Automatic annotation (TrEMBL):
Gene3D superfamilies: F1F0 ATP synthase subunit C. Keywords: ATP synthesis, Cell membrane, CF(0), Hydrogen ion transport, Hydrolase, Ion transport, Lipid-binding, Membrane, Transmembrane, Transmembrane helix, Transport. Key component of the F(0) channel; it plays a direct role in translocation across the membrane. A homomeric c-ring of between 10-14 subunits forms the central stalk rotor element with the F(1) delta and epsilon subunits. It is found in: Cell membrane. The record marks 63 as: Reversibly protonated during proton transport. It is a multi-pass membrane protein. GO terms for cellular component: plasma membrane; proton-transporting ATP synthase complex; proton-transporting two-sector ATPase complex, proton-transporting domain. It comes from Rhodanobacter denitrificans. It holds the Pfam family ATP-synt_C. Residues 13-75 form the V-ATPase proteolipid subunit C-like domain. Belongs to the ATPase C chain family. This is ATP synthase subunit c.
Amino acid sequence: MEFIAQVQSLTAIAIGIIIGLGALGACLGIAIMGSKFLESAARQPELVPMLQGRMFLLAGLIDAAFIIGLAVALFFAVSNPLIGAITSRL
């Protein structure tokens, strides 16, 4: 039983790392993309409508990676397959 508690605690730490690093990466990606968009809009204002559409598409793709990581983390939080594998062998 002590081993199961250890697996649960390490899973909680892993969930925090997955969510934290995913959020950090998404924030940095959107910040860099936004700064490049503003820089390109200042250089060529006539291209802003085209660039704006592409910027929103990229923002969605960047956020999609974070949301997939969040879904995996929530899967491990709600139904941990590692615990099931351990209890089936005991």
